[in-house]
Automatic annotation (TrEMBL), chains A, B:
Gene Ontology molecular function, alphabetical: hydrolase activity
Residues covered by the Nudix hydrolase domain: 24-163
Gene3D superfamilies: Nucleoside Triphosphate Pyrophosphohydrolase, Winged helix-like DNA-binding domain superfamily/Winged helix DNA-binding domain
Keywords assigned by UniProt, alphabetized: Hydrolase
Compositionally biased tracts (Gly residues): 166-182
Species this protein is from: Actinacidiphila cocklensis
Start-end of Basic and acidic residues biased regions: 151-162
UniProt keyword Hydrolase, yes or no: yes
Protein name: 8-oxo-dGTP diphosphatase
Region feature Disordered, mapped onto this chain: 143-182
Alphabetized PROSITE patterns for the sequence: NUDIX
Pfam families: NUDIX, WHD_NrtR
DNA sequence: TAAATAGTGTCTTTTAGACAGTATTAT
DNA sequence: ATAATACTGTCTAAAAGACACTATTTA
């Protein structure tokens, strides 16, 4: 080769390289953390303590620590800070990159590129405020992002009458009740993208099990699909289908103790199998009509 | 609400905000631009003119212009610069975000977060070197990323004997022939991720048509699938399947002029239809075995 | 007992795929 | 004529979905 790929040349170059010679762009991670509570899909949100958007709900997130962590590590760190979970509990949480958002003025302070992550978590305790957030809690998604649409201005971005305990975090105020509506920044759009990703992902992966505990019944698994997709599924056909897909679930040999049941036989318990993709997939019903 | 979401408070805050108060992270976009040439999948690459990795092939890309463009705009700009295409020609190119890569030391200069994009392009003329690249050209992907695996060191990352004209750009040297192998930075991994995305995407979207011209035959469309998937498909069943999926293709009423054919009837010509998702999808063959 | 639920049987429709066959064109 | 290619017909197997049915448990 004409010019050697010399490490000496690279060392010389790096010695005189100035990382601040370029216009700055900040890099953050934001996490769309989803969980199921009482049969409804909830998303982890924090109440912003400082400007901009002080007092508004936002997705948990923060700046990536330059030179010290990868994007995946930053997302896991932010999620751990807001949920108060330790490493063992986080192991049961599915975390994947969702996409990056970098319009020049999405943050009024400066150009901020946010790398969004999507998390599926089993039922978790109330969230812990961490970092510079005034409060943190699990919010029902349909109150913020109706039908998974991008954030549209709503007078009351979520309802207070139902399940008040679900907001958690002990914030005395209710952010978003000032009429401005929706999440801070472009987090409404990020949430909508995360919801659509979640709906698609459980079609061809077994990640619906990530919303459940170590063992679960087929009915509980079906309720995950019904909640995420927002559609009722045929119990009998779903049951047979799940058991027919190789590696989706495996039997524990146990049966449910059925607290709160209204009758019926004890359901068998299953745990997640070893498949990483479902074949054949569980397709959402009624995709023909509106999808073109 | 206790504290007003006052725009005055926000203005005060922004007036004293220093964008350089944080450790810098650079943000770049890199593009995995794929096209078909002579029945083989090619990726656009540039020969690096400067450090680091001088003389090595890399994906086209560059720094995002802080405060002046979105990520999508930056990717389109970089693609236009390297291909020399005007806005009209770029309109026929599919461009979507692939994912972001941000390990702290993936670039030896500083912490660089790269937002990768994936492009599908019809057959294009030889690339134009742009920016600080010494050369640019279309490289056969199997020479760089065998079987879509992450970049593994190979003595000769692409072969010189076949289709020498495909490299374009007029570079006298052949980057990568120094025994170091593979693409610069982590671009081998990004390319592998882009190839897997492309293979998956043509299953459930009509984007295979983005590799073809305005009108095409069913056989040409089948050759796109066979090349991207690396598997032979049954011509008769493929033909019927494509025509049965609503909105995938629509007839132009014309028939092919068949230059270079070895006999057979004139094939009918089609153009891309209005569907954005294929239902039912065209699934890759033989997914059961190795996918778990 | 009645009601609710877990799980299975069975039938129909849709889709994928194997394979064969016919028509059209180049050499 | 022969070979190659563009399509089409037909049959089988897999899968999705509608519906009915039995068994088990709670109230």
């Amino acid at each position: 080769m004409a010019e050697p790929d010399g490490t000496q040349a690279e060392r010389d170059f790096l010695a005189q390289y100035d990382p601040r010679a370029f216009d700055p762009i900040a890099v953050t991670v934001d996490v769309v953390a989803l969980t199921l509570r009482a049969g409804r899909l909830h998303v982890l949100a924090v109440e912003r303590g400082g400007q901009p958007f002080a007092g508004r709900w936002a997705l948990p997130g923060g700046f990536v620590r330059a030179g010290r962590e990868s994007l995946d590590e930053a997302a896991a760190r932010e999620l751990a800070e807001e949920t108060g979970l330790d490493a063992a509990a986080l192991d049961r949480v599915h975390l994947e990159q969702l996409g990056s958002y970098g319009s020049p003025h999405r943050d009024p302070r400066m150009h901020v590129v946010s790398v969004a992550y999507l998390a599926f978590a089993p039922g978790l305790p109330d969230a812990q405020p961490g970092g510079d957030a005034a409060g943190a809690g699990w919010l029902p998604v349909e109150a913020i992002s109706p039908a998974g649409q991008p954030d549209e201005a709503r007078p009351r971005p979520f309802e207070q009458g139902r399940r008040t305990g679900a907001y958690g975090g002990g914030a005395g105020r209710r952010p978003g009740h000032d009429g401005s509506g929706g999440l801070a920044f472009d987090h409404g759009r990020i949430l909508a993208d995360g919801l659509e990703r979640a709906r698609a992902k459980i079609e061809y992966t077994p990640l619906a099990t990530a919303f459940l505990g170590e063992s679960f019944t087929i009915t509980e698994l079906r309720e995950v699909y019904e909640t995420v997709w927002g559609a009722a599924l045929h119990a009998g056909n779903f049951h047979r289908k799940v058991l027919s897909v190789p590696g989706f679930v495996e039997s524990t040999g146990e049966t449910d103790t059925r607290p709160g049941s209204r009758g019926g036989p004890r359901a068998r318990l299953y745990r997640a199998g070893d498949a990483r993709l479902l074949h054949p997939a569980l397709l959402r019903p009624d995709r023909e009509a509106g999808v073109r």
